[in-house]
Amino acid sequence: MPELPEMENYRKLLSERIIGRTVTDTEVTREKSINVTPERWAQELIGQAVSRIDRRAKHLLFRLTTGNVLVLHLMLGGMMFYGKAEEKPDRSVQVRLGFGDRHLFFIGLRLGYLHLLDPSEVEELMNKLGPEPFDPGLTPERFAERLRVKAGTLKSNLVDQGVFAGIGNCYSDEICYHAGLLPSRRPNALSDEELHRLYRSMREVLMEATQGGGYMEMPLFVGDSLTGGFDSRCRVYDREGEPCVRCGGPIARRDVSSKKSFCCLVCQR
């Protein structure tokens, strides 16, 4: 599932390509992927342009010239592709936005969605989320305060969008590995030094992953050499049985809080 780095990568790359461009046509092949009728969808979108693209947690917010917003959550299996019709991957498209001879294809939106909302609805939805990992207000002290009061494990809290927004299965494991902590640790049992280390690791891992294009190898357009570039640099996620790059011990898979998790049982404490 795309997480903060993947969606931030999409945001940056799409901003360079579609901001200011007018939607010339649209097509919906799966009505459950949107929240209004296809007729209203076309009426609201055709002739409008995307004025800005924001990201909040794992969502992209396509802000339209009307003031309304397209809110995207790709969920499991979702992806996007931008280009000509003959260039798109051979996969089913649930929603398409046309920009002249180029199109933005929303693919694999079986669990995900692309909803048309007004600003108040967007605010209500986003207010349910916790702070962003790079929010200036999320200081090391505030980070520690939010975790200390939580039950559960590091894994369950790092992926909880109400605690911190944008982290999922992959990066929760990568952050714990970077910090030298097992995902099964209890937040309220961590020392001040361990919490500070976890905070630094969260920011360093997410920054590196974002700059590297995220871990999902699904190019956004023909010639896209950035998207998915971080996959080969994941230290533990989906690396079961491979040697730890730090100590040489085998990477193990363990279910933590009913979620698959990868770690090094030798050098993570």
Automatic annotation (TrEMBL):
Phylogenetic placement of the source organism: Bacteria, Bacillati, Bacillota, Bacilli, Bacillales
What region holds the FPG-type domain? 235-269
Query: Which residue numbers delimit the Formamidopyrimidine-DNA glycosylase catalytic domain?
Result: 2-106
> What keywords appear on the UniProt entry?
DNA damage, DNA repair, DNA-binding, Glycosidase, Hydrolase, Lyase, Membrane, Metal-binding, Multifunctional enzyme, Transmembrane, Transmembrane helix, Zinc, Zinc-finger
Tell me what this protein is called. Formamidopyrimidine-DNA glycosylase
- Give the GO molecular function terms: 8-oxo-7,8-dihydroguanine DNA N-glycosylase activity; damaged DNA binding; DNA-(apurinic or apyrimidinic site) endonuclease activity; lyase activity; zinc ion binding
As for family, the record states: Belongs to the FPG family.
Q: List, in alphabetical order, the GO biological process terms annotated in this UniProt record.
A: base-excision repair
Which reaction is catalysed here?
A: Hydrolysis of DNA containing ring-opened 7-methylguanine residues, releasing 2,6-diamino-4-hydroxy-5-(N-methyl)formamidopyrimidine
Transmembrane residue ranges: 60-82
